[in-house]
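Run Geranylgeranyl reductase family protein through structure prediction, thanks.
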Amino acid sequence: MNVLIVGAGPAGSTAAYYLAKAGIDVTVLEKTSFPREKVCGDGLTPRAVREIQKLGLPHPETEGWRRNKGLRLIAGGRTIELPWPEVADFPQYGLIRTRLGFDEELARHAQSAGAVVLERHSVTEALRAEDGRVTGVRAALLDDAGRKTGETRDFTADVVLAADGNSTRTAVSLGIGKRDDRPLGVAVRTYFTSPRHEDDWMEGWLELPGRDGKLLPGYGWVFGVGDGTSNVGLGILNSSKDFGKLDYKQVLREWTAGMPADWGFTPENQVGEIRGAALPMGFNRTPHYSPGLLLLGDAGGMVSPFNGEGISYAMESARYAAEFIADAAARSASAGWGPADADAHLARYAGYVQDQWGSHFTLGRAFAALIGKPAVMKLALRTGMPIPVLMRFVVRMLANLTDPAAKGFEDRVIRVLESLVPATSNQAAPTKAAATKAASTRAAPANGRPTHATSTTDSVPHSGANSADSATKVRVNP
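Sure, done. The structure for Geranylgeranyl reductase family protein is below.
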């Protein structure tokens, strides 16, 4: 079995490493050349650090990896420091590492295991057989300046992994589009030369005022990189009625202008331009499996609606995909599995991903809708910030740092909450006709009483003024 991976980010390189270690022929096509920059906060929670440890990727501080103790949260005139929780399945530290270095190290780690990484290969579309199965991709070759040379190459494989990020041309070329019934975020960030570059905490500012002074659903961050600079940025959810109407770069400028002068967050200390990117959340591109194709990480909208974290879920999805592929390859060799058997096994990948995070993402989608209402956001901060034990629980919930087997109070509460909601679906989005029919079924009376048929359409508010206004009326369907 041979595998083709589109994208050498955290998802693509992680999958490539595991597949190569399993003896599978794997090729990665990366649009740019390393080192290359990506818009990111550069923060890695213990959930992401666990994946780095599983890969066996060295991360010494002498090589640009800066450890941190936990989160420092600021809101309502209060500051609280919350160490990363002691959870059996996770390390008790986070990391800061610029994507400029992190992504290249992951790609080289995959190469060291035997993966082939081809840089400056920009995938433009997926290739399909007559029966619709994905059989490969077409890539445009780029020169050293990132310009198309006019030459293209076709690559074929038994399985294709789309790990090409939020814009994922691989999936889009197959008509796999974004879902409007899922949350979306936007992040902007830049770097400043700052004396705060050696901060031991990942700092989050939970109050971001909008144009009318009301709180925006999101947070700002200050992460010390350790190289003389700090990564400073903000992330905002589309559950605000102002989403898409604000100049987010200007919001960042105004926010940093109010910081203490000795922190150095001034135009003359800024390193590089302010850059932005979309955050695809809550499985906002589905299905995650199509014959011959699996979606990984941001390509499948696997960013958490709770905190905008995407790297850990990208790397986890890559590990899961590699395990299913390696298992299918082994059984094809030893148990006489044919292509249909292998496909049936690979199709289970989507269900497994849904089982892992579906309920967590459902709660996250409800959370995103609720904080889109400024009054709810203000009340939550006023209530929670003075109570450290409550904030510790919130951090564990938002960062998904729980132990499924633990009997502690916090773990039990989170398990109960997740058991009360259906898992967010990562199957194909319902057609408009199916959604209309499902809606009419719910509305139509039966024997004089309203029916409550469950639909595959998501009903958690997700964007715009209507979502924000109705955010306290949340019904969570998959």
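Residues 442-457, 459-477 have pLDDT under 50 and may be disordered.
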